[in-house]
Automatic annotation (TrEMBL):
The keyword Transmembrane helix does not apply. It comes from Flagellimonas lutimaris. This is Response regulator. Residues 4-125 form the Response regulatory domain. The modification 4-aspartylphosphate is found at D57.
Length: 128
């Protein structure tokens, strides 16, 4: 069961909208927002035993989503992560790069949609 949802995106509006969507329907699940991959990685390392659903943007300052995926690639077995890349990119090269990481569940287009949220909630038995 998912312990926490981690929104990793440098866009405050996107984070606000996604957090609001999740909180309205699932008020009991903790949501953490980090503005870049480095901050997200630091947070996960502090709580390595939690199960996370991560919605990860690609283009961010400090550490991009791709750099985050590379940073955890060799240690992904240490964590319980369900990672979805949620990006506004329509560049197929981005999708192909993400597809190379076996620990990514899917590459999705922003914004988060209700039907996708329902699917994630049902798949990972997120408590409502």
């Amino acid at each position: 069961m998912i312990d926490e949802i981690l929104l990793v995106d440098d866009d405050d509006v996107t984070n606000f909208v996604h957090q609001h969507m999740i909180k309205i329907r699932f008020p009991n699940i903790p949501i953490r927002i980090e503005s870049n991959g480095a901050a997200a990685l630091e947070y996960i390392l502090k709580k390595p035993f939690n199960e996370y659903l991560i919605l990860l943007d690609l283009n961010m300052p400090v550490m991009s989503g791709l750099d985050f995926l590379k940073a955890i690639e060799n240690d992904v077995h240490r964590f319980n992560l369900k990672i979805y890349v949620l990006s506004s990119s329509i560049d197929l090269r981005d999708k192909h790069e993400v597809d190379a990481f076996s620990h990514v569940e899917s590459f999705l287009q922003k914004p988060l949609r209700d039907n996708l949220l329902d699917e994630l909630i049902n798949t990972y038995k997120i408590r409502s």
